[in-house]
């Protein structure tokens, strides 16, 4: 029974990581099965060498306090039933325990991380395919009063589908119109600039039979997506996942290059990790989401800061950060017509208004908050200026503000303590892992440290902890960190091993 349950847990942990970049449903199902198998193992196999071991960690008490305070806040909500549905998302924190107690070796942790990195490639391929071959036809110079203009098509619209077919060349659209049977309407799916796709139907009696686009009075060209898309179809979710993968790949790459000789410099694993890092970074930039891009840059530079030992390298890193920020601002102004810190831009103004109302609600409900999901389902009661001005309902676009509004200041303080303990634990693990001269262990710890740091920076201006897919990935990496922590030698032992040189010989044999 113990072996069967262990196999089940392992299989579904791999299903979990392979599903993470693509599907929230498949990811949660895999997590649920792995958690259930672990719970059965804990209950059924209690004695003997096959019995499960429970490991303590610095995060146990902060996790427990945070979860209890969230439950108290949900119970004190004006509508407890509504708020308790939000506890399902809070409960995803127990991914940490499932992973930490069922990943026992560095080798298995490495396999899971590599599976996660490879699982991110189909989304990248999909994004690059759309950028290369387009998603439809871009329409320009739509003549006012024409059939298409009266139907609701305008300049810069993207024609995504024609009668359920994707058409990427103007000649194919003309051929489709000419071959269409009489009496059938034309069904179009059109995306307006910065808008959601809409369906448009043109009656059959109004359809022209042109020989060229010039006869239609429209200029058409291949349309490439304004921002790189993915299977997930949510740009912020996709960008944050890519941000975490960028930091992971960069940390593993730095560790792989560590202590290589000149003859070993062309190391195939290092080249593969560099390639993964590059494609994830390029795709992240093409998503054109500002905060995850800046957080990814900062995470990689932070990893380099902890990795580098030469003072001149560390002295150059602030300059590199400034140049990266300036270059990113110029590129985004050219590609998105919005800079990194454009105050007049719509989403920035929306954030400003939501944060101002969030601070007001925190002052009015400091202890237990307004209740989870109350803003979402009973927004009329809270007089939110951003909703009135922009006609669009969303969350507070900041994890700290959202948690403080929903749960109150005590639960928010517990979250801050949990994140601080986790970050300082990772920072200490980086130095200890480097001292052991174990390239795999060091790379995993460094990558998770950078990923967690970037994620926390992004959470300041995005409600990351409200996105189940990315928070599952965050807690998964947290669980792996606790697994890796058990394999770290105490500091005196690590220093002794380094002085004897035994760690270097093991490193050579591993390479």
Write the layout of secondary structure elements.
Elements: H1 2-19, H2 24-44, H3 60-75, H4 80-84, H5 87-90, H6 95-100, H7 106-119, H8 121-133, E1 136-140, H9 147-151, E2 158-162, H10 170-179, E3 186-191, E4 197-202, H11 213-216, E5 219-223, H12 235-257, H13 268-287, H14 290-307, H15 311-336, H16 346-364, H17 374-377, H18 385-390, H19 399-407, H20 409-436, H21 439-458, H22 468-485, H23 491-500, H24 502-510
Antiparallel strand pairs: 1-2, 1-5, 2-3, 3-4
Helix pairs in contact: 1-2, 1-7, 3-20, 8-13, 12-13, 12-14, 12-21, 12-22, 14-15, 14-21, 16-19, 19-20, 20-21, 20-23, 21-22
Index terms:
3 domains, Pdz3 Domain, 511 residues, disordered C terminus, 5-stranded antiparallel beta sheet
How does this structure look, described?
The protein is mostly helical and 511 residues long. It folds into 3 domains: 2-44; 60-129 and 230-510, no CATH class; 135-223, Pdz3 Domain, CATH 2.30.42. 64% of the residues lie in helices and 5% in strands. The protein has a 5-stranded antiparallel sheet with strand order 4-3-2-1-5. A hairpin with a 5-residue loop joins strand 3 (186-191) and strand 4.
